[in-house]
Amino acid sequence: MPKESIVAREIKQKKPFTSLEEEAYVALLRTTDALGFGAIELFKDYGISPTQYNVLRILRGSEPCGRRCGEIAERMVTRDPDITRLLDRMEKSGWITRKRDQGDRRVVVTKITSKGLDLLKQMDRPLAEFHKRQLGHVGEQKLRKLLELLNVARSGCQE
């Protein structure tokens, strides 16, 4: 009789998974949820969502030029189907500005503001410490292997 998997026990599943791929998929979802929950709480403390944080990091990395909406969407860690509305909310919060490109009026360039940069600066250390608490126990060698395996898993997905 096969040994009960940890993830099956966590979700109180009595029947075995139909495949190793299904079990790995469920384990990835459980892990994403477990790691993400604490992050969401941390982001709430700063009045920002994980998606908004992702946009600010993209824009901080593109200083001083900024990015077009489509470029931001391409670089997002997780997809957001309504990037325009997301940027609208962020502009109202004062974290970003948007201006029409002088060379092509159809293009809107988004830039991070000093308020957005200040917010990221406040969050940098707490987030780094948070990540250490979450994954530091795994160790460098295992983290590198994990990254390698995750890259292989993503390579089989259609984007």
Explain how this protein is built.
It contains seven helices and three strands; from the N terminus they run αααβααββαα. It has 159 residues and is mostly helical. It has a domain at 48-123: Arc Repressor Mutant, subunit A (Orthogonal Bundle), CATH 1.10.10. Strand 2 and strand 3 (108-112) form a beta hairpin.
Count all strands and give the number.
Answer: 3
Report the oligomer: single chain
Point out poorly predicted stretches: none
Q: Sheet with the most strands?
A: 3 strands, antiparallel
Radius of gyration: 20 Å
The CATH superfamily title of the domain at 48-123 = Winged helix-like DNA-binding domain superfamily/Winged helix DNA-binding domain
Query: What name is given to the CATH topology of the domain at 48-123?
Result: Arc Repressor Mutant, subunit A
Average per-residue pLDDT, rounded, comes to 90
3D shape: elongated
Keywords for this entry:
Arc Repressor Mutant, subunit A; 8% strand; mainly alpha; 159 residues; 62% helix; elongated
